[in-house]
From TrEMBL:
Belongs to the thioredoxin family. CDD domains: TRX_family. Residues 1-105 form the Thioredoxin domain. SUPFAM superfamilies: Thioredoxin-like. It comes from the Bacteria. InterPro entries: Thioredoxin, Thioredoxin-like_sf, Thioredoxin_CS, Thioredoxin_domain. PANTHER family: GEO12009P1 (PTHR45663), THIOREDOXIN 2 (PTHR45663:SF40). This is Thioredoxin. Keywords: Disulfide bond, Electron transport, Redox-active center, Transport.
Length: 139
């Protein structure tokens, strides 16, 4: 499956209406972004059940700011509408494949329960922050 371009108008709908979404925040002038682009495209062809999307940070500055993008490329992964991974920098193909395997294996019911407990002020570790035991550690 080819990658799709996301905009401020399509971002939330895409994240919420697909099981797994990988989003590459990039810019045309960015050398590391150009280096990562073929890796991302190859992964999109291998994993056709996953939505692979790109956000041009120059064209979508408000979206990049809302996503708190500090450097590019930044890869974000969402599962069931929740961000479960975020990493700045170029990832090699084997790391992207491993990331996808880990995302598929995430215990989403446990993660949602932890997030609900945290939101209710009852503790819990949250998800995707790298500081809990949910398996969604960044990096």
């Amino acid at each position: 499956m080819a990658t799709i371009e996301l905009t401020g108008d399509t971002f939330t709908e895409t994240i919420e209406n697909n099981d797994i979404v990988l989003v590459d925040f990039w810019a045309a002038w960015c050398g590391p972004c150009r280096q990562f682009a073929p890796v991302f495209e190859e992964a999109s062809n291998k994993h056709e059940d996953i939505v692979f999307a790109k956000v041009d940070t120059d064209a979508e500055q408000e979206l990049a700011a809302a996503a708190n993008i500090q450097s590019i490329p930044t890869l974000m992964a969402f599962r069931d509408g929740l961000m479960v991974f975020s990493n700045s920098g170029v990832l090699p193909a084997n790391a992207v494949d491993d990331l996808i395997r880990q995302i598929r294996e995430l215990p989403m019911d446990d993660i949602r329960a932890q997030m609900q407990a945290q939101a209710a002020g009852q503790g819990g570790g949250g998800c995707g922050c790298g500081g809990c035991n949910c398996g969604a550690n960044n990096g």
